[in-house]
Structure formats: C-alpha cells, structure tokens
Specification:
The complex is a heterodimer of chains A (about 180) and B (about 200). Chain A has about 180 residues and is mostly helical. Chain A has helices at about 1-15, 20-30, 40-55, 70-85, 90-100, 115-150, 155-180. Helices cover about 70% and strands about 0% of the residues of chain A. Chain A is rod-shaped, with a radius of gyration of 38 Å. Chain B is elongated and about 80 Å long. The chains are: A mainly alpha (about 180), B alpha/beta (about 200).
Chain lengths: ~180, ~200
C-alpha cells in the first residue's frame, strides 16, 4: 500500500512537471516535521534567522531553510531544539561550527586569512575616489592653458599673416629663378 | 610611470583571469572538516549484526582505523564495497557507521533493525564484507556530531580514537594512495601527529 502511494505521488509529480516545486513543498508540509511551534515569538524569529543564515553542507548554495537534504532537515531539527532550549544566536552558530566548520555559516569569521573580504572592496572604493579626484585636478590645470587661444585673436591674425607671407615668398623666389 | 599605467589594466585582467581559472579546477564539495585532531565524540550505539550489543568509543581505539559512513540506500557506497573488501584483505581495519535515512511515518514506514540486519547481511555476503563490525546510528546523532554531510564518507582515526583525516566521497584506487600515506604516518608516529 505504502509503495503504491509512493508510486502514485511520483506519477503525479511527473505529470505535473511545471508544478513539481509546489508538490515538493506540499510533501514537506505533510511530513509534520516542519510544523514547529514556539512559545516565544522571539524564539521563532531567532529560528527563522538561524535557518536562513546556516548553510547546507551537502547542497551547494542553499541555506538549511531552503534545502530538504537529510543533513539540512537534521540541522533544522537541531536548531529548533537548541532554540527551544533557550540557546542564543551565538551558541547555536558555535554548536554548528564545531561540527560542520566555518563553511556552515554564511557570515565568514574575521581572521588574517579572510580579512581581504572586507579590505579589498574598501581599497577598491578608495582607489576609485583617488583616481576621480586626480583626474578632476588635471582637467582644472588644463583650463588656463586653453584660454590663451581665445584671447589671442589679434596675435592669431598676425601669425596667419606671417604664414601667408612665408608661403608667398618661396613662390616669388621660384618665379624669379625661372625668369632667365 | 606612464608605461606602468599603460600595463595596469592588463595586469588587473590577468590577475582576475587567474583567480577565475583556479575556480574552474577547485572542488566545491571539498569542505574543511572541523573535527580534525579532535577525538570522536562519545557514543553508545547498537552493533548491526548483534543489536543487543552496544558499541562505544573504546571499540574504535587501539589501532589506526577507518570509520566508513555508508548505507544500502547509497549507490556510491555499494560501488565502494568491493574495493574496501580488498583493503580489508590487505589488513586495513574498517568499521562501518550505518547511516539510517529518516523514515516517512506518513506512509506507514518504520525503522526495523532486524530487517536492516538481514538486508545488510545479504548485501555484504553478495558484494564482499569490508567491515570489522557495523554501528547503526538510527537517529544520526553520532553522524551529526561527526559533521557528516552525506554518504559515503570516511574518517581515519589514530590509535587513541582521534580524527586525523576526513574524506568525502568514495574510496577508489585513484585516491587510496593519499589515505594510505596518512595511515602509514599514523602507524609509524608514536604520538600520531601528522607531518603535513
């Protein structure tokens, strides 16, 4: 009987391929495991926060609230127990870390080997600002250099005249040479 | 100085490419184990072949031992049995930690250790039996305390029952030399300390 129901459920899932995700959440809701009651709304909030921040060690890039791998279900259950027992956020995180390592928490610890995670973005922002400031200073310095072309209208016309003269002179020289 | 500036974008590009390239060849399943150099957590679990007998940490001490997490439900574990049996014949002591999957009570399933004992005995008679003995962890309590993410996984324990190596995935002729060298070091070293 049990296996028949399993097969029927599987068949339903296969037929309803686009709604497979929904079927799965229905199945987890049915397991009863996931109906967790809390006496204190603060504990409920803590549980929600912890299951969102703890990372499933089996499945890549899912938190334990999101995953239905056996290890994630067990970790959720353990988190529930610990929270119900009145343990704090730090205590639960430490409990999981002693078993599954730093990997298990999405917030990496601050250490010499991990300090670049914070330092590198800060350095990048500083470097960006320094470049922007230096560039704007350079363009400010260039502005006075540009102005002389504007004020030297009269100078420009004399220069132009000189160029015309210079261009005219060799021609006359050539013409004179051709004369004889 | 101007020349240096000219090559700066290229240098940045090369560094970024190198970083991303190394990512292509890294194994994301490789997780640092938190339990290296720590003793196996205390436990008292039934022996699979003889469920009335409780096994404890003292059954794992005295010699360098492989603790192999496995289950009949796990295809990779079943594929690994033949090679592990070969290793046992070479004199490697292997203890099995049986990973019991949660049973779905809504479908009327329940855990029956005697049925499991028969199924496992049949499987091991068929495929080879690499184990000195098997421990059944129905609630996955020791499995949780060991930081096991799935099956198969193997721990190398030194003579005092301290975890010295954690291997995720199957053991095969390709990766066995790495584990064998760890075992050799542990057997030779008086204090069981690894020289990295």
């Amino acid at each position: 009987m049990a296996s028949l129901r399993h097969k029927l459920l599987l068949l339903c899932c296969l037929l309803a391929a686009p709604v497979v995700a929904e079927e799965q959440t229905d199945a987890t809701a049915k397991q009863g495991l996931e109906l967790k009651s809390f006496a204190d709304p603060k504990q409920q909030q803590l549980f929600a926060q912890l299951t969102a921040e703890l990372r499933c060690p089996k499945c890549q890039n899912q938190n334990i609230a999101d995953s239905n791998a056996v290890v994630a279900v067990d970790m959720r259950q353990k988190t529930y127990q610990l929270v119900r027992d009145g343990q704090t956020y730090d205590e639960v995180i430490a409990y999981m870390k002693t078993r599954y390592g730093d990997f298990v928490h999405y917030q990496p610890p601050l250490r010499w080997s991990t300090v670049w995670l914070w330092l590198l973005p800060a350095l990048a922002v500083v470097a960006l600002f320094m470049t922007v400031i230096r560039r704007s200073r350079q363009t400010q310095q260039q502005v006075p250099d540009d102005t002389y072309e504007v004020v030297s209208g009269a100078q420009l016309s004399t220069e132009l005249q000189a160029m015309i003269d210079a261009a005219a002179q060799p021609k006359t020289a050539v013409a004179e040479e051709q004369k004889p | 100085m101007a020349k240096l500036k000219f090559f700066l974008p290229l240098a940045g590009f090369l560094v970024l490419s190198g970083f991303l390239l190394s990512g292509l060849f890294s194994d994301p399943r490789k997780i640092e184990s938190a339990l290296i150099n720590r003793p196996v957590p205390a436990f008292s679990l039934p022996d699979l072949a003889n469920p009335s007998q409780q096994r404890t940490l003292s059954d794992l001490t005295g010699r360098v031992t492989l603790l192999n997490v496995w289950g009949l439900w796990c295809p990779t574990c079943n594929a690994e049995l033949a090679y592990l049996t070969e290793l046992r014949q070479q004199g490697v002591p292997i203890v099995g930690l049986y990973y019991v999957q949660p049973v779905d009570t809504d479908f009327g399933d329940k855990f029956d250790i005697n049925q499991l004992r028969l199924d496992v005995a049949r499987k091991l008679a068929d495929q080879g039996d690499p184990y000195q003995f098997n421990v059944v962890d129905e609630q996955r309590s020791l499995i949780f305390d060991l930081g096991v993410t799935g099956a198969p996984e193997t721990f190398i324990l030194d003579k005092t029952g301290t975890i010295r190596y954690h291997h995720i995935g199957d053991i095969n002729p390709q990766n066995w030399p790495t584990l064998a060298s760890v075992i050799k070091q542990l057997e030779e070293g008086a204090d069981g300390q690894l020289t990295p």
